[in-house]
Write a structure and sequence with these properties.
By secondary structure, this protein is mainly beta. 0% of the residues lie in helices and 45% in strands.
C-alpha cells in the first residue's frame, strides 16, 4: 500500500519562498512519477508540476519560472520549491503519485494519471 506524506505548508508574504515535500512510503519503488496539484477556494483543481522517473519535468503555466520540482530518488521524495510567491498561489497543495511509473509524460498533467494522493497542505500568501 502506498502512503504519501506531505509537509512544508504555511503562511508567507508575497515574494517569499517555501518548500513542500512529499515522500512515497509503503515499500520501495524504483520508478515513480509524482505531481503537485493545488485547489483554491471556489476554484477547480489546478496542475502545478510533475516529475517523471526518467527525469522529465512539467510545469503549469502559472508557476513556470518560479517553481521547481527536484527529487531525491534514494528518499523517494519530491520537493516543490516555490519562489516569488504571490497571493494567487494561495491554495491547498496536494501531491499525487504514480508509484509504478506507468503513466506517459503527456498524461502527467491530468489527475487521472495518479492513483495515490496526499492529504493536502495549506499554503497562504498574504501581506
Amino acid at each position: 500500500q502506498v502512503q504519501l506524506e506531505e509537509s512544508g505548508g504555511g503562511v508567507v508574504h508575497p515574494g517569499d519562498s517555501l518548500r513542500l515535500s512529499c515522500t512515497i512510503g509503503g515499500r520501495t519503488f524504483s520508478r515513480w512519477n509524482l505531481a503537485w496539484f493545488r485547489q483554491a477556494p471556489g476554484k477547480e483543481r489546478e496542475f502545478v508540476a510533475a516529475t517523471k522517473w526518467s527525469g522529465s519535468l512539467l510545469y503549469g503555466d502559472s508557476v513556470k519560472g518560479r517553481f521547481t520540482l527536484p527529487r531525491d530518488n534514494a528518499k523517494a521524495t519530491a520537493y516543490l520549491q516555490m519562489n516569488s510567491l504571490i497571493p494567487e498561489d494561495t491554495a491547498v497543495y496536494y501531491c499525487a503519485a504514480d508509484a509504478l511509473g506507468r503513466a506517459i509524460l503527456s498524461s502527467l498533467r491530468s489527475p487521472d494519471a495518479y492513483k495515490d494522493w496526499g492529504q493536502g497542505t495549506q499554503v497562504t500568501v498574504s501581506s
